[in-house]
Structure formats: C-alpha cells, structure tokens
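Protein modeling request. Please complete all fields; requests missing the sequence field cannot be processed.
Requester role: graduate student
Desired output: 3D structure, token encoding
Chains: 1
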Amino acid sequence: MFRSLHMKLVLILILLIVSVMAVMGTFLVNSVGSYYLDDFESQIEDVMTQNGSETLLSLEQAAERGQEGVPRMMEILSAFVGQLGIDNYRYYCVLDGNGTFVDGSSTSETRAAELTRTPNIVSAMNGKIGSANTTIDSYMDYAIPLALDEQGQHPQYIIYFFDDKREVRDLSWNFFGIVLRAMMFGLLVAVMLSFLLSKTITTPIENIRTRAQMVASGDFSHRLDIQSNDEIGELTATFNHMADRLHDTLEEIAGERDKLGTIFLHMTDGVAAFSADGCLIHMNPATERLLGVSFCEDMHFNDLFEGIEVPTQKNAGERGFLQMEIEREGRTLSVLFAPYGAGEVERGIVAVIHDITEQRKLDDSRREFIANVSHELRTPLTNIKSYTETLIDAAGELPADTEVKFLSVIAGETDRMTRIVKDLLTLSKLDCGKMDLRFQRFSMQHMLESVFNAMALEAENNGHTLSLDIAGKMPDMNGDRERLEQVVINILSNAVKYTPTGGHIVLSAFRRDDSHVVIRVKDDGMGIPKDDIPRLFERFYRVDKARSRAKGGSGLGLAIAKEMVEAHRGTIYLDSKLDVGTTVTITLPTNLPADEDGII
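Delivered output (600 residues):
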C-alpha cells in the first residue's frame, strides 16, 4: 500500500501536519508548566522581599523566639495568603529544623502525614533556600530556613510552601484537548489537501510509469499528453523524446544484432568471446564444431584453449592481436586472439578460429605434386640426355643395332613424357571445367566388347587370362564413349601391370536398375595394403613408387578415371586385399541428357 508515491506523499504530508501540531502542543503544555513554576517562585519571592525584606526579617525574629514564635510566624504568613496563592492545591507550613511538621495552613494539616523530605527541604535543613523545581516534577515546593545556628548550617525552623500541580495539570489537559481537536481538524484538512496535491503530482508520474512499462514490453505506439508547462510537463516531453529515440535505437540494434547473429551462425570460421577474467560470453556453432565442444555458461578460456595463457593487450603488442596454430579433433586450426578494451582497461578477448586443415593438405599436395611432376619429367629427360650424348660422342663408332636400340629408348622416353604431359593437361582441364565431353548415345555393350578386344592381346603378352562377363543385354546410354573407354582401359592396364604372370583378370558388367549400370574389373594380382586404399585416387600417389616406375606408371591414371567418372555423375570404388587381388567398381547413370553441341 505504502509503496506507491501517491500514498507516500499523503503519509508525508499527514506526518508533517501531525508533527508540527504535536510540537506546538508540547510547546504550549511545557510553556504552561514553566509559567506556573515561575509564577509560584515569583509569588513567594515577592512576599519574602516585600518592604525591603521586612517580611522575611519578621519571620526570622519570630523563629528566634522558639516555640513561642510559631504563632507569630503563622500570623505573618496568613497575612499573605492571597499574594501567595494559597488554595486547595497550594499550602504553607512551619517545619522544625529536622523537617518535622509544626504548624500550617488549613489544608496542610490533612497532608502532614504525606509530607516527605523533598530535596528542597533537605537543602533548607542544611541552611540553604530550597527552590529547585522542574516542569516534569509532579509538585512544586519552596523551603526557607530561619534562625540558623552560629555555623549558619542548621535552622531552628523552616517555612515550607507546597503545590501539587493539580491546577497546572487540569489546565494542561485543557490545552491538550484543544490541541488534540485542532490536530484532528488539521489532520482532516491535511488528508484532503495531501490527496489533492499528491494526485496532482503523481498522476503524470503514474502515466509515465505506465508508458515506461509499455516501452519496456516493446510497445512504442502510445505517446503521453503534456498537460502542464512545469517540470513534470518537461519530464513528459523528455520521456516521449526518449521513447522515440529508444525505439529508433532498438530497431537499429535489432537489425545489427540479426545481421551479426546470421553472420556468426552461418560463418565457417569460429568466433568466441571471453570476458577479461576468461569466462566464456559467446561462441558460434562453428567454434563448437572446430573445437569439439558444446556451449556451457560456466566454460572458461582454458576449457577451450588448454595450455594457452589468456592473452592481454600488453601481450598483443602494437599489432593488437596474437596468432597461433593448434591441433584439435584431427584438424589444424589457426587462432587469432584479439584483446579489446578502453585504454588500459581490459574488457575481454575475441578468438577467431579458422580451419586451415585443407589449406595445409593442399600445400602439402601442391609441394608433393610439383616434386612428383619434376621427378617424373626428370627421369625420362635424364635418360634422353644420356643416350643422346652417347650417340653424339660415339657417332659413327657404334654398331647399327646399338644405335637403333638407343634411339628406341629415346623414343620410348619421349612417349612417356608425352603421356605424362597429356595426363596433366587432361587433369588441368577437368579442374578448370574446360574438358570438352561429348555426350552422345552409344551402346555400352559394344564399348565393353571393344575394350576387351583391345586389351586381350596385351593381357596375353603378359601371360594373363582376360575374360569378359556381361550379364544380359546392356542398355544404351548418353555419355562420352571415348573418355569412358579410356577409363576402363586405364583400369585394365593397371590390372595387367600389377598382376603376376599367370593371373586372371575379369571385365564384367551388369544392369543395376533401370537407370544405372555397373562395370567391374577384378584381378587376382598382388593387391594393395589397406592403409593405402584411401589415397589411391590422389594424383601421383603410388603404393610402391619404385615398382610403379618400373612398370611405366605415372600415378595419374586412377586420378583421371575418378574425374571422368564423376564428370558422368557416377561413382568409382576400389576394394583390395594384399596378395589376394583388387576389384574396381564403376557405377554410371544411363539417363544423362545428350547435348546438341556435345559439350556439357
């Protein structure tokens, strides 16, 4: 209830009125008490000092007469009853030097039994006038010592005045009643005025609060009406302006957030942000994939980059970032750490993670490719140069058959170089998408028979048995017959080369379904180790390089075959066991569209 500003203002105003009236009432009541206390003392002092202290002197003289002087003292005091204000609330009496009642006014005799030694009586018993009174006491008294001894300490009699403050209390209660009634009336007025005043102040503020809640919930469609030109009106206008600016800013931020969120979500590079103490703030899915982790709110820098010290702006130096390579999940990652902050204040670190595994593989493949090409070309060039120099140095001296033999070697090495260059050009065209493949309708049956007939003599010359196994009638298909023949011939050539004498090679084919055919070449040759099979389709890769070069291979045949088959939207698969044999399976679609110009 009292949490609202309206009720707080009402309560404050009420408390203010009550406090002021309570202070005023207390002040009035205390003033009445002080007035009566001062009046009580001044009445006694005026009587005692009347006619130049003649009254006090007369009392002294009467007191010196002892017991005989008591009636005289009572006679003197009774003469001043009116001036002393003696009534039912106030009386006077004569006490002996020990504070015992001797005689007094008419009302004092009934109160003699209640008489106690007050501090003022004790002071008088010690020879001093006792007049110490306060407004908080329940009575007022005044004690005057008479006829002191020679030491001026012990009196023979004490004139004692006493007032029980009933009159003061009655008057105070009357004042209190008046103050209380005034307070109740003032409280009623204060409540009415405070409600009116607080409503005037709080209504615009409540409107602003309601509008602020709407803005907080994302509703910017309402505006506040400006109802005054005072500070609250200015506050309302400022709030409207702030809401408009906030709306525009939030739209801009939302646009940027969506843009950044889309970038972070779909970018292939990983991005992770950390606070200055290394706590993870954000990371995108690419980071989880590259580092092999899952996002967790309590993750730390060391959980993602174990063994790496948290970078700082000082470590980053003038470049403003640190870059290093790490290995994760079998990948090579390049990580750029960029600390950020204002001046020397560290705010956090942003890590950008780039997968350079393929780049490293490409670099390695490029270096290996260059080395292989250089080696493949250097070997025939070396042989050509050697035999040519021999022929030049021994011109006319060598037998004719030796010269023919040397020239045959030179021609063979030249053909070998031509094949390597031709294969390289073929791969280059395939890589660049510039290989002209003429897709025309041809008979798969005739193509396989033609390849079998072309390779039968070579297989027989190497002591192998080559057989053809075609299951049923093979369908016609659209494709580049010449390129597919080259693929099958290359595979059969490898089978012939790497199968020991007396081996068996089978060229088979069958129709897998209505739109695919399968061509398979199987031999019982030396086979291939299991670890080498995944790399057989890489360029220049050989299981046994020395043996391959001896057989005349360049290491490009299977790579070209794979490119050609994939250009026909097919697949090629190799299965082999060491010392058992090798099987190469090609699957081709038969329903490829034929292009009028033959180029795809």
